[in-house]
Amino acid sequence: xxxxxxxxxxxxxxxxxxxxxxxxxxxxxxxxxxxxxxxxxxxxxxxxxxxxxxxxxxxxxxxxxxxxxxxxxxxxxxxxxxxxxxxxxxxxxxxxxxxxxxxxxxxxxxxxxxxxxxxxxxxxxxxxxxxxxxxxxxxxxxxxxxxxxxxxxxxxxxxxxxxxxxxxxxxxxxxxxxxxxxxxxxxxxxxxxxxxxxxxxxxxxxxxxxxxxxxxxxxxxxxxxxxxxxxxxxxxxxxxxxxxxxxxxxxxxxxxxxxxxxxxxxxxxxxxxxxxxxxxxxxxxxxxxxxxxxxxxxxxxxxxxxxxxxxxxxxxxxxxxxxxxxxxxxxxxxxxxxxxx
Length: 341
Prior knowledge:
This protein is of the alpha+beta class. The chain is built from eleven helices and eleven strands. Strands 2-3-1-4-6-5 form a six-stranded antiparallel β-sheet. Strands 9-11-10 form a three-stranded antiparallel β-sheet.
């Protein structure tokens, strides 16, 4: 398939997957499903929404490119309408952009970024939309999140250009699709340990939110690196998140980093052959994780005859969630052979 793509689109059937939060999905479905029904009828595209009690859902849009662009336009304008409605009672002066997250096979992301980031730069400049490709694959998949934000018109132009790239550079090999997990999913650590922490619901949701946020986008294609600002937001979230009280405790939440306040302690075991990627050269990586998460992290000395090292994480549930996420991300990149982030 070597279609020549023009502004008018092509009569080629394409499937685009979107990652949405529950509130966004509710907006797309509408009252009694009226909104999504109207979108299907007016665009001519098939729009399917994944089932499941998950904080995130996958919205799949399939059809000829023209139908897909119409569906995207309707979604983008619906989100803008939601933003306008939310601002009527708000004191905010600046209007936030519309944001959509595409889920793209990792094997196509190199073409989307281009040599030295040339293609993604061209898309940003020609459409006026912000485009960011996540550095890590989404959990248990070979797909990455591509975040597009801007005015609806800019987003529609941007999606058109991304579709062109996807048509010209089909996925290589088998794609393992990303499937969002329910909020109560346990955290699986190296060595096969499974731990479902008894945090409050908001802490569990925060943990899941952190799990899917992209790390800085390094090692995308060859030696080219694309910086990613989202980690700062994650760090702020961990530092500012309303403190929670773990189940079974009646003491108030954790007032920040006050050393005298009660704090949770979590332990996990890391295989000896992987501990190096957590510590980094001269402790650079573990210090980075401490700084980003706001948690205290101690690594026990190697016990004689043991194949594992104990890591103790202390802090609020938000700090611990972020520290766990950062440690898991380091392990995932090492095990999957992506090399150091």
